[in-house]
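Morning run. Coffee first, then this:
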Amino acid sequence: MKVKFITTIYSDLYNTTLGGRQSRYHHYRLSLLSLLKMTNADFVCYTSENEIQSLYNFFYIQHNISQKKLEIKIYDLNKSYYSGLINQYKNIDEVKLGDRCYELQYSKIPFYDFEDGSYDYYYWIDAGLSHTGLIPDKYLSGVGYEQYFESSLFNNKLLDNLVKFTGDKFFIIAKENKKNFWEQTVNPIYYTNYDSSFHIIGGLLVGKKENWILIKELFDKYVNQIIPIEKKLYFEENILTLMYFNNQELFVKKEFDIWLHENNYETGHPEYLLDNKSFYKILEELNNE
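And here it is:
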């Protein structure tokens, strides 16, 4: 069973016309290094012309990662698949100070177009997924700054169980969105039966190669249906949430309630952690199934 992860590193987008998070230079690199412990999979990472040399130095020279295991490619987000549509409705002033890049969000699924289909499973994974904000200290290690990103939860056992759990469906992760509200959704009129009980996150997606064409068709359908009518841009997670609720038979999901965990929850109500499932519990499950 051959598996490939698709990801990106663009750590210099803040205060540009594309928009993106601040201070992610080391975060994305060290986190992806941790994800690479899933050694039975290959990875491709898209990046900008400005960053590609620093990524070569970090992964290939400093950490001796094989170029076969991790391929790093240039991709110009200004020429992304949905750039024409995005540019019609993007507020540049808001984007410059925002922490999300629409071009990147909307490229997660179209990136599959660059693949040759030689792997059995393809997953989109956020390069920055392995970090102390999501994972408690008991699963972190490393020296110096690396200790905030190096996690034992990412390994080949997790990989094998992820593939097994995915099967023939679309794999998604869903955050509970009623008791612990996180995000609004698109206009309810686009739902077959409106439901906002879950919010689909964009950190880890899809699976079997045969499903990518269908999921791209669905994503494209909703993007082109909703945005020109509403005349606004939605996060890709809002579109994914709509896709899930209108086509639940196509998906298999892992659920969680909260992002927080025992090492970053500081109020006087410990029962909150007992009553709610932290995100990292999904990674635990995939290590133990």
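The longest helix spans residues 210-230. Good start to the day.
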